[in-house]
Amino acid sequence: MAQDEKKVSFRQRWNEARPTKKIVFWISVAVSILTMIVGFNWGGWVTSSKAQQMAEEAVVERLALICVDQFKQDPDTAEKLIEFVETRRYEQDDYVRDQGWATMFGDEEPDRNVADACAKMIALIDQ
Predict the structure, then answer these.
(1) Are the C-beta atoms of residues 99 and 74 closer than 8 Å to each other?
(2) Whether 81 and 52 share a structural domain
(3) φ/ψ (deg, to 5) at 107
(4) Same domain, 52 and 36
(5) 3 assigned to some structural domain
(6) Chain segment 26-41, per-residue pLDDT in tens
(7) Whole-model pTM?
(8) H-run or E-run covering 51
(9) What range does the domain containing 37 cover?
(10) CB atoms within 10 A of CB 96
């Protein structure tokens, strides 16, 4: 009797399957969550706040390079580098701001973040 029963293939079972609305809903939810996990972890997706932060960091880095270039163009670069090195580590960004290297064209005051990044780059020049 068991031999008389025909073996049902996967394709036939698939064609005969009729999922309920509940099952379709939960599968959709699971696929959506899985897509977000993959996208944010490995797909390079970022939130708008993270994108804003990354953009600001990129701008600061570019402006810090300009700051370092202004430092190098200073007529008293050698003397000011010695003063910079003798300055305490936590005051070096203040030194950069006081020298005006972190003040960009069109700005009235130096940017604190640019001064900090610039001070770190100048410290690497000394090494």
Answers:
(1) yes
(2) yes
(3) -95, 150
(4) no
(5) no
(6) 999 999 999 999 999 9
(7) 0.69
(8) helix 48-73
(9) 10-41
(10) 30
